Description:
Layout: H1 24-33, H2 36-40, H3 43-49, H4 52-63, E1 67-71, E2 77-82, H5 85-96, H6 102-106, H7 120-131, H8 139-152, H9 156-166, E3 186-189, E4 205-208, E5 214-224, E6 230-237, E7 240-247, E8 259-263, E9 274-287, H10 293-329, E10 331-332, E11 335-336, H11 341-370, H12 373-401, H13 413-419, H14 422-425, H15 430-443, H16 445-456, H17 463-477, H18 486-505, H19 508-519, H20 536-543
Parallel strand pairs: 3-6
Antiparallel strand pairs: 1-2, 4-5, 5-9, 6-7, 7-9, 8-9, 10-11
Amino acid sequence: MGVTHEVTNQVPPLAGHDPIAGDAALAEACVRHADVATLDSLEALGALAGSEQAQEWGRLADENPPRLKTHDRYGHRVDEVEFHPAWYDLMRTAFEHGLAGAPWAAQSAHPAAPGHEPHAHVRRAVGYLGWTQVEMGHGCPVTMTYAAVPALRAAPELADRYEPGLTATAYDFGLTEPTGKRGLVAGMGMTEKQGGSDVRANTTRAVPNADGTYTLTGHKWFTSAPMSDLFLVLAQLPEGVSCFLVPRVLPDGTRNVFRLQRLKDKLGDRANASSEVEFEGTTGWLVGEPGRGVPTIIEMVNTTRLDCVLGSAATTRAALTQALHHARHRRAFGALLADQPLMQNVLADLAVESEAATVLAVRLAAAVDAGESDFLRLAGAAAKFWVCKRTPTVVAEALEVLGGNGYVEESGMPRLYRQAPLNSIWEGSGNVIALDVLRAMGRSSDALAAVRAEIDLARGADDRLDAAVVRLTAELADREQLPVRARRIAGLLARCLQASLLLRHAPAEVADAFCATRLGGDWGAVLGTLPAGTPIRAIAERARLRTP
């Protein structure tokens, strides 16, 4: 080609890093809420997550989405989904490293029992946040498998039958009778065409049988990971909406009626299959009490919301990592981008956002380990609203750091951008979650007291946090038209939590930048507007991944 095609000023591949131990904020949170041994136990996963091999798995899984196969060559219904081999590599890695249901087995009810791990949920959260930066779609069935365990415990006999497979560190793909498999994958079917988040509008019906099973007839508008082994679904009984366990394969080895109508053509999350399912004579088992399906499945939803926060923190961190790497190697206007003051402001602001999301996400996981149900009920909802809502803005700004290169598929940034809105929608979109924040505070004064106690651990450390708490108290005291202000309240509550955590655990420059912008009056409409005098270079440098 000649000299016109000599390649210069291009960024080298980003590989050989560790997004777990190499991330100062994440590693510190792991040690803070667990210990050094917990962080060390994730060393192999972190090394794989930063490898070229894992990045290739993520690319291939996204570029080769699953395909629906409704019938075999002879016309028999098979209702199967075919995935690219990279999908299985991603899933196998997640399960083998304990990112699915394993923490529930590791956290025995008896602390003296062999194999008990007091920090199992923190370990899993840190690993999940690091590993899903490779590809987020497979995180959906990993999450649902993790979240199915506490919900299934509402039916002890079913839990005894299926929990060993759900908590196994094995990925055993294929439609066979669940109790004969080493590891199980769980899914969930709640929403229907006419209702969406209004699950009480569901029309799927369940009829009891003499043998204790139920026959379900109806449809589900969204059922993710339809090749899972079992699902928790909602259906109507005379007593009201009830929860049922529906396996793909029945105990006698025959396939349950689980008719896949089509796969959703989604904006992002393309490696994961989301489907519409028809039930017609489908067999299920009741989980919990008749008419108490929503409270039963909420046990699963509350846990999946934790992963919405973790997943959004992971997406934010992955975008920040790309932006920092690009800026450290790309030159423009006579200098590296990372050395230009305005770019440093942008990178530092992105880093502040990422660290705030990370510390809150891992704190929620620590609440699971500690059994802090009151704190988790409210803090989890507020974090789900705020962290997930912020992610698209952060990813868009990080993409812009790469300029036109970031708009090209090969950079990987478009995949992150398409993924960014998902967790704000999944398990209750913005309005649903904001109203749930109000509901959590209204139903339980203990939940609000637990969150306020966490915030108060940093009271007096920064005037801007103290003033924000006063504003929050005033917002809650004004009961008139409270639902109209639900988003303001949810966002302010989450930011107060983040500020408290940063003031206690992050470097002073990070906490000060957060309070000055997210709580103070000097927050611009866009990122990259940290006030003059902020040590932006130090903040951006802290966020740079450390290599082994």
